[in-house]
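Figure-free illustration: sequence to structure, shown twice.
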Amino acid sequence: MEKTELFAYLRGKRLGVLGTLSRDNEPQGALVGYAVTSDLEILFDTVRTSRKYGNMIANRRVSFTVGNTVGKGDERTVQYEGIAEELAGESLARFQPVYFATWTDGVDRIQWPGITWFVIRPLWIRYSDFNIPLTKEWRF
């Protein structure tokens, strides 16, 4: 398993679970639609009134999980830990085309009140394929 294969797996999926901690240190999960860059950065949008937004502003360390949801017996997953950053200005302009290539309806959400975009930069990723079995980890 190489990083290019990991990228292809992540790019082939569209939904993942974002894990954050509340201000009271309680774990919270949210299913989000995401896109991925060739540098294995996760991109997604949210609104500023969401729980995950407040959690990420208070604590930028997050987790992200992607799993196979189609096909019985296909047991592949990615566990991902990283640092979330709210995008603005030049960085937003650079990342939005990647996001919109995956989520074309994302362009319509630009008009939503309080909409914002985040990137998660990886610190640690584990890919597991329990069909083979195979486990591979990367540290960044």
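We now fold a second protein in the same way, so the two outputs can be compared directly.
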Amino acid sequence: MNKKTPYIGVTGFMNQGQVEIVLKNRNTHPSIVGRRLMVGVLVSSKTLQGIQNKWPLRYPKMTDLGSIFTNDEGCLNLVHFSSDNPTNLFDDLMQITQLAGENLHGFQLNMAWPDKEHLLRYKEKYPNAEFVLQVGHEAFSQKGNDLTQIYQAVLGYDRAIDHILLDMSGGRGLDLDHQKIGSLVSEFSPISYLGVGVAGGLSPENVQQKLLDIVNQYPDISTDAEGKLQAAHGGLDLSEVRKYLEASIPLFQGVRV
């Protein structure tokens, strides 16, 4: 199995109008450099139950979920799901799938080391779905920040996952340590079926500085940004998204995969 096409991600979309505004400017569409635009929509176990969490301008209501994703062929439409009840993961994924509609392509799992069996059960029903496993602060902590343990844990998922996202920020805008992340990417990049992505405080101002060395060494890397693309009032700032994509595209010029 080959690696899936890499992506440049933006997370925090609340409605299809926001997605369409981003897609209107084809000059900043990641497809021009062989990437997909990852459209990230946040869902938690709380919002799945219809309960508002502390980020109402980042997490849409479930009644709106089915109208957010478009059918643009250059997009990767993912629900970024975090759960307080991992034992119910398969049922939650199935419920979200019904709510999200036919343009959903898969999930990013924002939880530490979810049970592989839930993912395999889901892929039996939706074999083309893509799973991104976020490997963040809690995941590192549970493995004692030991790279060997983390590496073995990721290998244990085998083809139940399609990508990992190395993300110590978790949407909080904390800066990516590009030297540390680079050493981690070097460990995971050789895995033939696994896409590798990085995140952490990426913004229009710093994305080239933080990712230039990584992209030059690992041209099939994926990226995701959320925290520093938010407006002061807390919602996604589409002008910042545009500037972020404008700054990101040149990184991948000449390194098509």
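Summary for the second example: Strands lie at 7-11, 36-44, 75-82, 106-109, 130-135, 163-167, 195-199, 222-225.
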